[in-house]
Amino acid sequence: MTPHPALPAFQIEPGTALAQASPWHHAPVTLDSPALQVMTDLTQVKAANIHPSVGLRQAEQVMIYQGVRMLFVVVDMPAILGLVTSTDLSGEKQMRAVHDRGVRYDELRVADVMTPADELQALDFARLKTASVGHLVATLQRHGRNHMLVVQAAGQHHPRRVRGVVSRSQIERQLGQAITITPIAHSFSEIERALA
Fold it and tell me: pTM of the entire structure?
């Protein structure tokens, strides 16, 4: 037995509500606000991730459950293999995989539609510290992306790492307005898929 006295306990009353986290980054912003105000900081928020062998329907359920539109694809934490987005799960990528491989949608795995890490574009965390939301909007539009990773250089206590994520939907929520982004092919494989 412990020498500490027990705390008093009581019955929960009907109608008692469950406390819910209010994300720190939902404050309204303008295009002139600091860019860090719209970045999801992975030192503050746990990164949503998934294994590459998971089926697409299960991946969609994970996104819904976690309230995200993007998952990091990982086998051995913290190394990332790539990303999978909600668009990957229901867009052209999965249709092309079904057609090219002659399989059913239910047979596809995250690995079949994810964007590999070596095809991902990123922003430098040090530069983001001095940028504005307007800079981020221009960057997403220029690159035709809904998400961009933010990478922090190696430091005394950590290796080079993905420090955060910038997402169009997060910026739109905080700005209170839609952002128009036209998808752009960034690799030969993306160009080939667009022309096929």
Answer: 0.75
